[in-house]
C-alpha cells in the first residue's frame, strides 16, 4: 500500500472538515491565502517593547491585531516560544488568545516520535493549546504521526522542506524515487 494514501486514509472525515472548512471560510472572508508566522525572534522585537517574555507577547499581539483582517491562518513556530524556558507556554497561550476564533491556528511543532510520545505531543497541541492543525515529521513512520490525526485533529506532514541541508536526506534515491516522494 502506498504510504501517502495510507496516511490520508487515516485522517478522519471530521478532522478534514473542521480544519479545512475553517481555513476555507477564513480564505473567503478575508479574500486571502496569507498565513502569518508568529515567531518571536528576540532580535526582531523592537527595543521599545522591552525584552523577555512580556515583550514577545506585546510584539506578537501587535502583529495579530495588524494582520487579522488580512490572513487565513496563523502559524506559531514552537521553537521560538520554547527558548523562553518556563515562560514559553504562557507566551504561546497569551499569543493564541489574541487570535480571532474564526482564523485557524497551525502549530508549527514538527513533532514525530514513538507512538506514546507522539500521543503526548498531540494531546498538548490539540487539547491544551487548541490548535486547528500541527506540523509533523514522519521520519519515524506512520505510527508516529497517527496520534495527530485522531478525531478533529489535522496534521500537515513535512515531506520536502526548504532548509539548505534538506537534500542531504530528502533527495536520496529510494527505489528509484527521492525519499520525500516515498
Share of residues in helices: 40-55%
The secondary-structure class comes to: alpha/beta
Strand percentage lies at: 5-15%
| Overall pLDDT metric | 88
What is the CATH architecture term? Alpha-Beta Barrel
How many distinct beta strands? 7
When the domains are counted, the total is 1
CATH fold assignment: TIM Barrel
How would you portray this structure in words?
With 182 residues, this protein is of the alpha/beta class. The chain has a single domain, classed as Alpha-Beta Barrel (TIM Barrel). It contains 8 helices and 7 strands; from the N terminus they run ααβαβααβαβαβαββ. The strands form 3 sheets. Strands 3-4-5 form a 3-stranded parallel β-sheet, covered by helices on one side. A two-stranded parallel sheet has the order 1-2. It has a two-stranded antiparallel sheet with strand order 6-7. α3 runs parallel beside α5. The relative contact order is 0.14. The N terminus is likely disordered.
Amino acid at each position: 500500500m502506498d504510504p501517502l494514501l495510507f496516511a490520508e486514509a487515516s485522517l478522519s472525515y471530521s478532522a478534514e472538515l473542521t480544519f479545512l472548512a475553517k481555513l476555507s471560510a477564513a480564505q473567503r472572508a478575508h479574500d486571502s491565502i496569507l498565513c502569518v508566522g508568529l515567531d518571536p525572534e528576540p532580535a526582531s522585537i523592537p527595543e521599545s517593547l522591552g525584552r523577555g517574555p512580556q515583550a514577545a507577547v506585546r510584539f506578537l499581539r501587535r502583529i495579530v491585531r495588524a494582520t487579522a483582517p488580512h490572513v487565513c491562518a496563523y502559524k506559531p513556530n514552537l521553537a521560538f516560544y520554547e527558548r523562553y524556558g518556563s515562560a514559553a507556554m504562557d507566551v504561546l497561550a497569551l499569543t493564541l488568545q489574541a487570535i480571532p476564533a474564526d482564523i485557524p491556528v497551525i502549530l508549527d511543532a514538527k513533532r514525530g516520535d514513538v507512538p506514546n510520545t507522539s500521543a503526548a505531543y498531540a494531546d498538548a497541541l490539540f487539547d491544551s493549546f487548541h490548535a486547528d492543525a500541527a506540523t509533523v515529521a514522519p521520519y519515524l513512520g506512520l505510527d508516529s504521526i497517527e496520534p495527530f490525526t485522531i478525531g478533529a485533529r489535522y496534521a500537515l506532514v513535512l515531506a520536502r522542506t526548504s532548509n539548505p541541508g534538506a537534500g542531504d536526506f530528502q533527495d536520496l534515491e529510494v527505489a528509484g524515487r527521492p525519499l520525500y516522494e516515498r
